[in-house]
UniProtKB/TrEMBL annotation:
<protein>
    <recommendedName>
        <fullName>NADH-cytochrome b5 reductase</fullName>
        <ecNumber>1.6.2.2</ecNumber>
    </recommendedName>
</protein>
<comment type="function">
    <text>May mediate the reduction of outer membrane cytochrome b5.</text>
</comment>
<comment type="similarity">
    <text>Belongs to the flavoprotein pyridine nucleotide cytochrome reductase family.</text>
</comment>
<keyword id="KW-0274">FAD</keyword>
<keyword id="KW-0472">Membrane</keyword>
<keyword id="KW-1000">Mitochondrion outer membrane</keyword>
<dbReference type="InterPro" id="IPR039261">
    <property type="entry name" value="FNR_nucleotide-bd"/>
</dbReference>
<feature type="binding site">
    <location>
        <position position="153"/>
    </location>
    <ligand>
        <name>FAD</name>
    </ligand>
</feature>
<feature type="transmembrane region" description="Helical">
    <location>
        <begin position="34"/>
        <end position="51"/>
    </location>
</feature>
<dbReference type="GO" id="GO:0006696">
    <property type="term" value="P:ergosterol biosynthetic process"/>
</dbReference>
<dbReference type="InterPro" id="IPR017938">
    <property type="entry name" value="Riboflavin_synthase-like_b-brl"/>
</dbReference>
<dbReference type="GO" id="GO:0090524">
    <property type="term" value="F:cytochrome-b5 reductase activity, acting on NADH"/>
</dbReference>
<keyword id="KW-0560">Oxidoreductase</keyword>
<dbReference type="GO" id="GO:0005741">
    <property type="term" value="C:mitochondrial outer membrane"/>
</dbReference>
<keyword id="KW-0812">Transmembrane</keyword>
<keyword id="KW-0496">Mitochondrion</keyword>
<dbReference type="InterPro" id="IPR001709">
    <property type="entry name" value="Flavoprot_Pyr_Nucl_cyt_Rdtase"/>
</dbReference>
Length: 325
C-alpha cells in the first residue's frame, strides 16, 4: 500500500504520502447432368457472394513473429527512422522484414540481442536491448539508446543512418510475468535500465485484468536525463492509486523539488512495500553497475542472479523477492 512519505517532482519529500490478453458424378445420357452440375455450381457461387456481401468477415490472420527464438539465427532489420530524444539519447525505429503485419515475437519480460562487427574489430560486439515499443506493435520495433563514451554498440547505433541495417536475435526471456503474479512490485532503476521496467509496467496497466500496484524509484544525473518521463507521468495520472514514481537526481537544478543525491536506504525504506509481505512483493533492479552494487548486489550471469546484498538485504528482503534484470 502507498502509506509512507516520499517525494516526486511536483512536491517535496515532506509533503508526500504513499498511496496506494469427392467422387465423380454418375454418367447418364444426355446433357441433363451437365446442366445439374452447372446449377449446383451457380448455387455455391451465389452462396459465396451472399456470404461476402452480407457483411461477415473472415477471421483475422495471426501476425507473423519476426523473432522466434530457439535455433533461429540473427535477423537483419533496416533502420527506418531516427529521433533525437535528448542530449545523449536517440530513438531508433527498425522495420520488420516481413512487412507491416508482422510483430516482434517478444513477450513480457524479454529483450533482444544486437550484433555489430566493425571493419577493424576481431570479434563482433553483442549487446542486449529492451524495445520500448509495444509487443503487439506491427511493422517495427523501437529502441531508446543512450550513447556511452567507449561503448562500441551505443556509439555504432548513434552513428547509423536511415537505410542501414543491424542484426538482432531473440527473444531473450527474463522474468516470466503473469497478471497479478504479485500484489505489489517495485522498480528500482538508473539511466537506460528503465527500459525493461517500462516494458513490464506498460503490460500491467494495459491489461484491465491485472491489478498489480507499481512503485518506481528512478535515479539520474539531471532532469533532462529522465527517460520516458512523459510516459511515466501519464501512468501516474491515470492510475494514481496503483502507481507512484519517485525521482532522484545527482545534479538537480535549483527549481527541482524532487529527490536529490543518490538512491538511499532511507528512501527505499520509505517508499517500497514491506518485505514481510512475502510472495505478494517483488522488487526489480536494473541500471549501471554502481546501482546494482549499492542496491542489490551484482548478478553473476544472465542465468545466475547471484547473492542478494546491499540496501535490499539490509532492509530485510529475501533473495526470492528480488530480480535483477
Amino acid at each position: 500500500m502507498f502509506a509512507r512519505q516520499a517525494f516526486r517532482p511536483a512536491r517535496s519529500l515532506q509533503h508526500q504520502t504513499r498511496r496506494y490478453a469427392s467422387t465423380e458424378p454418375p454418367k447418364s445420357g444426355g446433357g441433363s447432368s451437365g446442366l445439374l452440375f452447372i446449377g449446383i455450381g451457380a448455387a455455391i457461387l451465389g452462396g459465396g457472394y451472399y456470404y461476402s456481401s452480407s457483411g461477415a468477415k473472415a477471421p483475422p490472420k495471426e501476425p507473423v513473429k519476426t523473432f522466434t527464438g530457439g535455433d533461429q539465427g540473427f535477423v537483419s532489420l533496416r533502420l527506418d527512422e531516427i529521433e533525437n530524444y535528448n542530449h545523449n539519447t536517440k530513438k531508433f525505429r527498425f522495420a520488420f522484414p516481413e512487412g507491416r503485419e508482422a510483430v516482434s515475437g517478444l513477450q513480457i519480460t524479454s529483450a533482444l540481442l544486437t550484433k555489430y562487427k566493425g571493419p577493424e574489430m576481431e570479434k563482433p560486439v553483442l549487446r542486449p536491448y529492451t524495445p520500448i515499443s509495444d509487443e503487439d506493435q506491427r511493422g517495427f520495433l523501437e529502441l531508446l539508446v543512450k550513447v556511452y563514451p567507449g561503448g562500441p554498440m551505443s556509439e555504432h547505433l548513434h552513428t547509423m543512418q536511415v537505410g542501414q541495417r543491424l542484426d538482432f536475435k531473440g527473444p531473450l526471456p527474463k522474468y516470466p510475468w503473469t497478471p497479478n503474479k504479485h500484489k505489489h512490485i517495485a522498480l528500482i532503476s538508473g539511466g537506460t535500465g528503465i527500459t525493461p521496467m517500462y516494458q513490464l509496467a506498460r503490460a500491467i496497466f494495459s491489461n484491465p485484468e491485472d491489478k498489480t500496484k507499481v512503485t518506481l524509484v528512478f535515479g539520474n544525473i539531471a532532469e533532462e536525463d529522465i527517460l520516458l518521463k512523459k510516459e511515466w507521468e501519464e501512468l501516474e495520472n491515470t492510475y494514481p492509486q496503483r502507481f507512484r514514481a519517485f525521482y532522484v537526481l545527482d545534479k538537480p537544478s535549483e527549481k527541482w523539488q524532487g529527490g536529490k543525491g543518490f538512491v538511499t536506504k532511507e528512501l527505499l525504506k520509505t517508499v517500497l512495500p514491506e518485505p514481510k509481505e512475502g510472495d505478494d512483493v517483488k522488487v526489480f533492479v536494473c541500471g549501471p553497475p554502481g546501482l546494482y552494487k549499492a542496491v542489490s548486489g551484482m548478478k553473476k550471469s544472465p542465468a545466475d542472479q547471484g547473492e542478494l546484498a546491499g540496501m535490499l538485504k539490509d532492509l530485510g528482503y529475501s533473495k526470492e523477492q528480488v530480480y535483477k534484470f
